[in-house]
Amino acid sequence: MTTTHVDVRRARAVALIRDGALTFAALLLSFAAFDDITTGNETDFTLEYGAVLVCTGWLFVVTFRLIRASRRVLGTVSFVLLAGAIWGLREIEPGITPGLWPAYVVTASAFLWFIVVSAVLLVSGWRAYPERHTQRAQRPS
User: Fold this and answer.
1) What DSSP letter does each residue of 102-139 carry, written as one string?
2) Rounded CA Rg of the chain
3) CA–CA dist 109, 85 (Å, integer)
4) What b/e string do you get for 50-59 counting C-beta neighbours within 10 Å, with b at 16 or more?
5) What angle, rounded to 10 degrees, do the helices at 72-89 and 46-68 form?
6) Could you tell me the residue range of the domain that residue 34 belongs to?
7) Does residue 24 fall inside a structural domain?
8) Which terminus of the chain has a smaller tally of CB atoms within 10 A, N or C?
9) pLDDT tens string 67-81
10) Biggest CA-to-CA distance, the chain
11) Using an 8 Å Cβ cutoff, are 56 and 86 in contact?
């Protein structure tokens, strides 16, 4: 492999790992915000809802990157579930009880789906990293 080809592969692998890690961090932040909203006793959750909106914005970025990268199934399912979670956000309020009502199921499904997306991005980046392949090829037989 030429140096340029290796550099391109490395940059792509690093971008996948970065996106996977940022997606996982966004999920942790949004989970903490939802937990505070649903169990907190405060009267103002502006910071928490703001955190959820920032995380939602990042998830839209990841969704459109997936679609542009020809991972249309991951991107399309992500878009549908993210849109559903935004719809379900109107039902998330203090003291809400988890249950099988539509807004809660859609929001929880989106959260779980993006954990899978994060894992796919991390594993894809790890597998695409060029040094991993050259080390394996250089091992003595």
Assistant:
1) HHHHHHHHHHHHHHHHHHHHHHHHHHH-HHHHHHHHHS
2) 19
3) 8
4) ebbeebbebb
5) 160
6) 3-132
7) yes
8) C
9) 999 899 999 999 999
10) 66
11) yes
Distance CA 99, CA 19 (A): 31
- CA neighbor of 61 nearest in space, from 123, 29, 108, 18: 18
User: Tokens standing for 130?
Assistant: 């060029």
Q: Would you say residue 80 lies in a domain? A: yes
106 within domain boundaries: yes
**What's the predicted TM-score (pTM) here?**
0.82
**Token reading at 100:** 């099988």
Domain total for the chain? 1
Distance separating alpha carbons of residues 134 and 73, to the nearest angstrom: 31
Residues in the chain: 141
- Show the tokens assigned to 97: 């009880």
- What's at 60, amino acid-wise? F
Task: State the Cα angle at 41 between 39 and 47, rounded to 5°.
Answer: 85
User: Is residue 137 in a domain?
Assistant: no
Residues of the chain with pLDDT under 70: 1-3, 132-141
pLDDT in tens, 13-39: 999 999 999 999 999 999 999 888 888
Q: Tell me which residue of 120, 118, 127 sits closest to 21, measured CA to CA.
A: 118
